[in-house]
Amino acid sequence: MRQLSLVVTCTDRKAVAPEASLHARSLPVGTAEERSTIWKRRVADASATQPLDKLYCGDHWTQSRHLVAMAAKAGFDARLWVASAGLGLRPASESAPAYAATFSTRHADSVATSADGSAQWWRHLQEEQGRTTLQELEKSGPILMVLSEVYAKAMEAELRALGAVASEALLVGGIEGIPGIRRVASDAGLRPALGGTLTSLNVRMAASWLQHCEDSRLTSEATSSAWHEWASAVPKPEQLNRQPMTDAQVIAFIRHEMGTQPGVSRTRLLRILRDSGRACEQSRFASLFKRTMGDQ
Q1: Contact assessment for residue 51 and residue 82, using Cβ atoms and an 8 Å cutoff
Q2: What is the pLDDT of residue 261?
């Protein structure tokens, strides 16, 4: 069987609560390099650890673990890896302490206040002797990555380096196309067919892709055609005659979604709103989004 590296993002939900020092909010003010150096020391000095596979909880992680079985059915020997704002790129079998760190810039435990800051943090987090990169994983065989917008932005440099050498790499989610990497953009319209929460949508899309991978070739035209044919035939929420919303309703929607998906982009939120059958003009939504986030 061909080896397949499955890279998924970590999740906020943990089996145990992190110590106060392993909350990113406890870090002192400083540069990304200074803060990440302190953070790595704290992680290394922590005494209580457990396998990451057992540390993470929730629908996203349950579905991420399910990807391994789906990959086996598709003819792959899959290894699960975690892209974490607190740990870098780690195998799910590795042990680490409970922690609270994210690239979602409006979260209390955000490691940075901007996308550029997140990218710097990831680079410093990965700059250790022997630390595995996406390029290293690609040497073992195909690589399937399931990344949110904020994680794909933070890891952009590493993704582009992977694209320069990759022969068989797939990105589900992300924020934009990367030369050398086949991308399947997140599609909230598939949620009724795939089930689950919005936070696990990308992972469920990846599982569906593997279900259509019958030739053990992750990014072959046959696999791509089969998946896109399925996706285009799936009934999606009716997008015509959307239900109008008042300003108060739009603001309530934004607050609710930001609470469940910290750091989600404005463009993504508008797409989710419209896919749910509701209506809001783009410039009006942008104005209400700015007003809502300014009130927090």
Answers
A1: no
A2: 77
**Does residue 295 carry a pLDDT above 80?**
no
Residue 4 β-bridge partners: 78
Pairing relationship of beta strands 76-84 and 88-91 according to DSSP bridges? antiparallel
DSSP, res 218: T
**Cβ(145)–Cβ(172) below 8 Å:** yes
Task: Locate the domains of the chain by residue range.
Answer: 2-233, 243-294
Q: And the tokens for 33?
A: 């390099």
Instruction: Please count the other Cβ atoms lying within 10 Å of the Cβ belonging to residue 116.
Output: 12
- Cα(64)–Cα(53) distance, integer angstroms: 10
The DSSP element (H or E) to which 119 belongs, if any, is helix 115-126
Q: In 3-state terms, what secondary structure has residue 102?
A: strand
* pLDDT, tens only, 139-157: 999 999 999 999 999 999 9
pTM reported for the whole predicted model: 0.81
CA distance 42 to 87: 11
State the amino acid at position 70 in one-letter form.
Answer: M
Question: What totals of helices (H) and strands (E) does the chain contain, helices first?
Answer: 13, 10
